[in-house]
Amino acid sequence: MTESRIDAVARSVARGLSRRRLLAGFGGVSVAAVGLAARPRSALVCQRVGKSCDARTGCCHGATCEDGVCACADGWSDCGGSGVCVNRDEDKHHCGRCGKSCAETTSRKTCCGGGCVDVAGDRANCGACGVACGDAELCVRGTCVGCPIDRVPCGNACCAPNRCDDGRCLPDGPAAGAGERATTTDDRG
Questions:
Q1: Which keywords describe this protein according to UniProt (predicted)?
Q2: Potential cystine with 139: which of 67, 90, 126, 158 (Cβ 3.0-4.6 Å)?
């Protein structure tokens, strides 16, 4: 291409854009560049377990760069050898150790602190991991609820005072009342 033709092409391109449009285009490119820079490293290209790493090429989520090679951090494992680390304290399919699935027992269980927990009825993890019910509350369908005024929590039921034996209500006896049975979470709806 001759120099005059290059100038002609440049002028025709420049005539088609107003300054306002040109600035808007630069603004859009700038916003996109800032957005990419602000994204976490795991959202960008990252190095999997066993791959080389340094200050410029970081490891994927759950892995750290040790001696120039990505390795799973403490509490994380490369289950199945895929190069991706999973958190054994939270992963429902590798809960506590690789291959231990919470779904094997019931689909309602989730992984909390490396153990399979039914968050619908666990007082220490009611509705979600780490959400604990109060001393006078039970976990019913993932919500902390109080026992009636004349009852105390016992396992996952409400009993008459002094009628709880190792997490089970004892329905007979003077504290429960003649012929009265203990209230359980199933009785409460």
A1: Membrane, Signal, Transmembrane, Transmembrane helix
A2: 126
